Amino acid sequence: MTLALVYLQAMVIRNAVAQRVRRLRQPRYLIATLLGLAYFYFLFFRQLSPRDAGPGAPPGPANIGLLVGLSVAAVIMTGRIVYSWIFSANRAALSFTEAEVAFLFQAPVPRRVLVHYKLLKSQIRILFSALLFALVSHRVGFLGGNVWTHAAGWWILLSTLELHSIAASFTRERLLEVGLNPVRRRALVGGGLLLIGVGLGWWLRRTVPAPSAANLAEPMAIVHYLQGVLATPPVSWLLAPCLWILRPFFAPNLAAFFRALGPALLILAAHYLWVIRSEVAFEEASLELARRRAERSEARRAGHWSERNRPARKRREPFDLPPHGLAATAFLWRALISAGPWFYPRNWLFISAAVVSTMLWLASHPAYRTVMVVVQAATLPVGFWVLIAGPMLMRREVRLMMQRLDVVKTYPLRGWQVVLGEMLAPIALITAIEWLLLAVLAVAAATLTGEYGSTVLFSGLGVVGVALLVPPVVGLMTGIPFAATLYFPSWMSAVGQGGGGLDVMGQRMIFAGGYLVVLAAALLPAALVAAVLYFIVLWLAGSQAAALSAGAGAASLVLIGELATVVWWLGGRYEQFDLSAELPPS
């Protein structure tokens, strides 16, 4: 039976590969696959050179970065395991698809064979992940070894965590069968950990001196002190199992790797025996897990983030929708209900007021100046990421609109009204987030300079100017999914599909590159007009504030004109669009 399941999994992999190879006959998949291969080559393989990791390599001095990385990783791994034992309430459920449940659970297959099949199936994912992570971690400077020792280290780590997760769920199920419910288990484990923590603190207080001023003078001194604490018994004893699992990955050379390999494999084998020898009934929980996964998958295909089998609660409307007025307002009203109450106008005003008030309170206390530096450094990249990634979520909305195109076409609306209505919700939501980030940035900038008068004036004018530019820029970015779907529906159907692979990744890269190209093309005319008007007003009025306001206003008007043109153009294409005639036969 085990060989039959191995054959089944091998055929699944072969058919999946064959299907992807056959898809390369279509240009949309071939071009995207070539782009994905080029991305992997230039990112991972072009500069991949083996390190001198042979047994004859000189040992060299101890690398403090390597030791600290090993200790921190062991602490994180230990914390993850402890957290799962205290707070996790998952039953003994193995992840099977609905087809596997229908095929395997009805057959006379022993539980141990099902467990082996699950472990075999998980190894495919773990091996691929280990190779991918190794290509990334190999580039970290302070890590030793080579790409193959890193891949083996990642495989040991991921396999051990996978086995421990299954074994822990089996043990929790066994405890539940003997009457130890999750509340009692948490109290028992939490109490035991509390006693261990108290004893550990008492021991360390007697053996490890308290940190002196020299230990806290600089970051490296703090790192050395913490490393000494983690290397002191009994802390090192508690971290020993995780350290043994992690040492093959952190081995600086092949000799150290083979020395660390034995204990790590023993722990891996012990976890395997733990899983195989746990006679626990997992069929019922696995059936429930497969059902929930199928419902989540169906909900995502329908445009929801979670399964919708719960009773619907009556939700308050975001605002009063008048019976007459702009049709796009109705689209916005519907989208805000779907987005949830966090983005309702009144709720978002309360959230923004709370965030800005917190920033002003932090600004009034000099002790929090470091916090303001971190906020200022993080706000700009976050704002840029929201500006780029936010409109990409529009792909899902466009895909849903295409699924109900036969209904949408019956609306007594012009094409530009439908396009504007579908674009209005993401424009409003992303603009609200960007405006809040701009307000936070203005407060942080005024605090760090200390010159509130001029800084608030110029940063305030700059914020207002950028705030005027955000809605039309977001609108232009949001129009890209519409244009791509209306003109290249077969490409967009591939981009919006689930799963992964080089072809899907390449198609998404092409789509993301389109955002950047359109953003540059849209901003160039606006930037030229704004620069010309800025220098004219500055020459005539001599006021930098007036010139800044005039330039921002002119750029905003240019972008609004571009957005209106795009909406009108896409509306005309929408009225002529026929999905059945555009998609090629499958």
Q: What is the secondary structure topology, with strand pairs?
A:
Elements: H1 2-23, H2 27-45, H3 64-87, H4 98-104, H5 111-137, H6 147-177, H7 182-207, H8 219-230, H9 235-250, H10 254-276, H11 283-301, H12 327-339, H13 345-363, H14 369-392, H15 394-403, H16 405-408, H17 415-449, H18 452-487, H19 489-495, H20 502-541, H21 544-576, H22 579-582
Report on this structure:
The protein is an all-alpha fold and 586 residues long. It contains 22 helices and no strands. The radius of gyration is 29 Å and the shape is globular.
Strand content: under 5%
Number of strands: 0
Note the main sheet.
Answer: none
The overall pLDDT, averaged over residues, is: 75
Low-confidence stretches: 49-62, 303-311, 452-459
In whole angstroms, how far apart are the ends? Answer: 36 Å
What number of domains? 3
Based on CA atoms alone, the radius of gyration comes out at 29 Å
Number of helices: 22
Please estimate the helix content: over 70%
Derived from helix and strand composition plus strand pairing, the structural class reads: mainly alpha
Helices and strands, in order, run as HHHHHHHHHHHHHHHHHHHHHH
Q: What overall form do the CA principal axes indicate? A: globular
Multimeric state: single chain
